[in-house]
## 1
Amino acid sequence: MDFKDIKLTGIDADGIEKEFTLADFKGQDVVLYFYPKDNTSGCTQEACDFRDNFNRISSRAVVIGVSPDSIKSHLKFKENHGLNFILLSDPEHKLSELLGAWGEKSMYGKKYMGIIRSTFILDKDGSVEKEWRKVKVKGHVDEVLDYLLNK
């Protein structure tokens, strides 16, 4: 299956629950970023960085955050931090696996499977144009914005 056709439930920019596919955004550039968990420090910082730069990014691309968290969790995350972009729920990690954003991680010597913080720029046809793997939160949104402004 093509990653653009996977249906995921999400919360749109207005906080309304909807079903999405990435094919819905054909004709627009998309910043698709994968993060491990709602309301954790790094994920909150990254989301707030996208929120704070939304006006600069949204003139060039749609912003979509993806994690395995539930819709209920996404709603709370969105409300707690005034997030102004789409959040998709990928609990079965279908989309994250196809894009290589799901894999083995390690914390305190213990190995487990989870989201590998990653960001992708999808072009107007939905193809991956640029990717960042194992993203470090600090300064990342600036990298994304710089890429979008100079492409």
## 2
Amino acid sequence: MNQKVTRIISVLLGIMLIIFGINKFLNFMPAPENMPESASNFMKAMIDTGYLFKFIGLVEIVSGILLLINKWVPFALLIIAPVTLNIIMFHLMLDVADILPGAIIFILLVYLFRANWSKFSPLFKS
């Protein structure tokens, strides 16, 4: 795959993850007002735990920084993959109308996994 395109996608994903991660601490992008009640209740429950929402934010920030500085990229992709999958599932099940940012993150992540597949393929050999 083209290294320049891969690097641009890595930087773009890193920036998005850092912004969304910091938002979990500073709340400068409030949740949409038209969010379905079930989605709102789920988000509130994560926030009410006192740690889960911030932990997710920390994972987003750490993986975003690693992608930006181009260090431990496979590790960054692995730690953000479950978060990204949950973002997609949240939107598919509870708030499909606001799926676009999550879908973009998911698509960028899939591209980067494919671009770094040589580092992951040994995990699937017997």
## 3
Amino acid sequence: MSELLSNRWPDNSDNDLCWFAMNAPFRRELDAQKLLDEMSIESFIPMAYKVIMRKGKKKREWCPVVSNLIFVHATRKCIQEVKTYRIPFLQYLTKSDEGRSLPLVVPNNQMEQFMRASQIKNEKIVYLTAHELDRLGTGVRVRILGGPFDGIEGVFQRVQGCRSKRVVVVLQGILAIVLSEICLDLLEVLE
């Protein structure tokens, strides 16, 4: 699973485009995304419909799945300038490595698959947080062949609360998507 998430700056280069997992405290992830859009910097916030109580009435709203979480596609140099001059509240999500705090960097191919899986609105998908990820067992790496999730790779495993095994697309240590039930004929086992 270590290939899914890098715990270091990519090649120590300031000019490599990569996905940074970031935090926008006090539920300002949508504000941060708007500012990034104005600067033509790609970002992604996992969103889903949630039922929310407003003034005593239930409402179905399109909201961020995890509060404060935003993924930013930029170079290290660019994101440092953005943090310093335009969006000071934006913070790196980090992981400790030999006493140092290093930003969490998500590989491009893993992020692309995660975004593709999360943007299919007609399918029932469930998101798991980092805490819930720890409770998952190990599974078999698979690729889906056909259907709305065609080409997406993940882990085929049992998930608590589901009757059958599901394909889980994981951003290790950050977030995961549990896809709707997939026909076994559409799964290719990866080495």
